[in-house]
Design brief:
40 strands; 2% helix; 7-stranded antiparallel sheet; mainly beta
Length: 525
């Protein structure tokens, strides 16, 4: 599968790297092998896992068949014959990338690898302001310009015009409407102004201008449609050059919109949405994140939401049948990360100091066929409030594979989001959650303490057990996390490799917890 590891400079850089990993190329998955040789099909750099699709990947199956000890023929069901891969050398096309490493037993003609690809994910939305520093103005009382309140006013003396209100978004989009509000006097409202755009924040182009505007009532708000078809841009501003006769100029609000009917404003918090194609390339799996920053709390978070369909006029949190937020707390500084991606989900692990936070975003492997359960989406992270920080030690601060209240939700066949929680906190104490019907097993065995009895195999190796989602009300076994399994921390530690049934896994702990019953394993190959 697409396995990415790396270092991000901060949480925003991590989002950028995640977007690149998801959307810049297709994804390979499901490698199997049958043959006499014991070599392996690996990532393009020769590492375990990490074989990838390419920029032209579609949903198709590939066979990689040995012609002799050194050469393999690569054939796709859609691409046809892609040529010959040689052992020990990178094989790279716009459909597929991998390397075959030799083992101690040579390959023979007929040995065969099989694997699949799916298309790249689609970036659906990337705009909004990362933080307050991305909203700038030369008005006095600048907070009043963007606070959406009628009782606060920003001013600028007429002699000091022009006045501007500027936003810098996390990605380019087109502004199709603009709202201005005034203070207690129409005479001090803006009379002449223009909407301007910029790609770099330095060179500006006018999109549309308005002249001779009047304001007949106090505290009036007016939305101006943009009739000019302007290209998308990252920087937008309104430049006010004249007041309606009074002094000083007064403005109590400025807002920018992608559409007259949009229920969100572009100067508000940043939103990021992607669409996964599914393993068959025919699905439309939607989820996204709001960026949250609070320097006073040291909170720099990605707050995740899932939903069934995407309405471009609705904000992320007001999409129809939205899951509610699940918070992945990160940091405003370097962090290591692991991404395991295929066409239907991404599993995320980030190391922040000695704490490991994780998230699961996408389809689980449902027990019912798609005709019964066509949208088994799970959104899991570390909690259900946006202000989490990685240094928390609360019992509810847990990862998706052993969720607290309430870090995991899943969409059931009746299209209802159900919360899953294994444990909860009362003050400094931690208890098994006997009230929430949704559970993840075998992690939920912590309710009675039985999970601590799960140890190494008799040969000393680590077990890998499926992580099963289910509910007791209604009683329903939903399915299993794709590429994630439960393992024990006995005789292992975070970032330890586990070889289980010819497959490589890596162990990670549950946030700050290092007791042996607080680990899961991420599939590497």
């Amino acid at each position: 599968m697409t396995l990415r590891t790396g270092i991000a400079s901060d949480y925003f850089d991590f989002l950028n790297q995640l977007e690149s990993a998801l959307c810049s190329e297709g994804h390979a998955w499901g490698s199997l092998y049958a043959g006499a040789g014991n070599g392996t099909l690996m990532g393009s750099d020769g590492s375990t896992g990490g074989y990838r699709g390419g920029v032209a990947s579609v949903a198709e199956a590939f066979t990689v068949t040995a012609l002799d000890t050194e050469r393999f023929q690569v054939v796709g069901t859609a691409a046809g014959d892609l040529g010959t891969a040689r052992v020990g050398q990178l094989f790279e096309t716009d459909r597929l990338r991998f390397r075959i490493n030799a083992g101690s037993v040579p390959f023979v003609a007929g040995d065969r690898f099989t694997l699949n690809t799916s298309p790249a994910w689609t970036l659906v939305r990337r705009y909004g302001c990362r933080n307050a520093n991305a909203r700038t103005t030369n008005f006095a009382n600048p907070i009043a310009v963007f606070d959406n309140r009628m009782d606060t006013v920003a001013t600028r003396p007429v002699a000091d015009l022009p006045a501007h209100a500027t936003i810098e978004m996390i990605g380019p989009t087109s502004v199709r409407a603009m709202t201005l509000g005034i203070g207690d006097s129409g005479a001090r409202g803006p009379a002449a102004f223009a909407l301007q755009r910029s790609d770099d924040g330095a060179t500006w182009a006018s999109v549309q201008a308005w002249l001779e505007q009047t304001w007949p009532t106090a505290k009036m708000r007016r939305t101006y449609p943009v009739t000019s078809a302007a290209p998308s841009a990252r920087f937008w501003r309104v430049m006010i050059t004249a007041a309606a006769g009074g002094d000083p100029l007064e403005v109590n609000d400025v807002s920018f919109h992608t559409d007259l009917n949009a229920d969100f404003e572009l100067e508000d918090r940043a939103q990021w949405i992607v669409q996964a194609p599914g393993l068959d390339g025919q699905k439309a799996i939607f989820f996204g994140a709001e960026l949250y920053e609070d320097a006073a709390r040291a909170a720099y978070n990605l707050n995740w939401y899932g939903f069934r369909s995407h309405n471009p006029l609705r904000s992320l949190r007001t999409q129809i049948n939205v899951s509610g937020l699940r918070c992945l707390p990160l940091r405003n500084g370097p962090l290591a990360y692991w991404l395991a991606i295929n066409g239907q989900r991404v599993a995320i692990v980030a190391r922040i100091g000695t704490v490991y936070v994780s998230a699961y975003l996408g389809f689980v492997n449902a027990y019912e066929p798609p005709s019964i359960h066509e949208y088994p989406l799970a959104i899991g992270a570390c909690g259900s409030v946006e202000i989490l920080t990685p240094d928390m030690t609360d019992a509810n601060f847990r990862c998706f594979f052993d969720p607290g209240r309430y870090s995991l939700v899943a969409n059931y066949p009746d299209n209802v989001w159900r919360v899953h929680a294994n444990r909860y906190a009362v003050g400094a104490n931690e208890y098994g959650d006997s009230e929430t019907p949704g559970k993840v097993y075998p992690s939920a065995m912590s309710t009675s303490g039985d999970r601590a009895y799960l140890r190494e195999n008799l040969d000393g190796s680590s077990p890998i057990l499926p992580l099963i989602l289910g509910s007791s009300n209604p009683r329903h076994a939903l399915g299993e996390f794709d590429g994630c399994g439960w393992t024990t921390g006995f005789s292992t530690a975070s970032e330890s490799r586990i070889d289980h049934e010819s497959t490589a896994w890596m162990a990670f702990q549950n946030a700050f917890r290092t007791s042996p019953d607080n680990y899961f394993a991420l599939k590497l190959d």
